[in-house]
Predict the 3D structure of the following.
Amino acid sequence: MISIVLVEPEIPENTGNISRTCACTGMPLYLVGKLGFEITQSRVKRAGLDYWDKLQIEHVHELSVLTDRFGEEKFFYFSSKAVRSYTDVEYPEDAFLVFGKETKGLPPELVAAHPDRALRIPMRPALRCLNLSNSVAVAAYEALRRFDFFGMK
């Protein structure tokens, strides 16, 4: 199953919306590093509505915990600074889609270290980026589409 990874998310409503997307798609959600909120805050819970009990969620302190556990080659790094489009890649069934914090995205050195797995969502050049929860939804459903949505209806 495809998983979503958020590195140091800052805005509780975004993480709440992403958790709802993960619950609806069956995707595990991994939160990495320092969070800009407490996962128990009402704004996070409200955005996720009543989906929290249907969500597989784990908080780890460093991304390397996940890459060591699951294998670096399964991780795809989303950044407005990447060159390759998110539609031009063959995702493995157990891919991890990694997104950075709302204000800074992923660290540039992380994106630069993985040029073949650094991906962007196309947008007009004059604009900075999409909202994090929208970016996750766009990428998640494209990856799921490649596998006929794993039997979802």
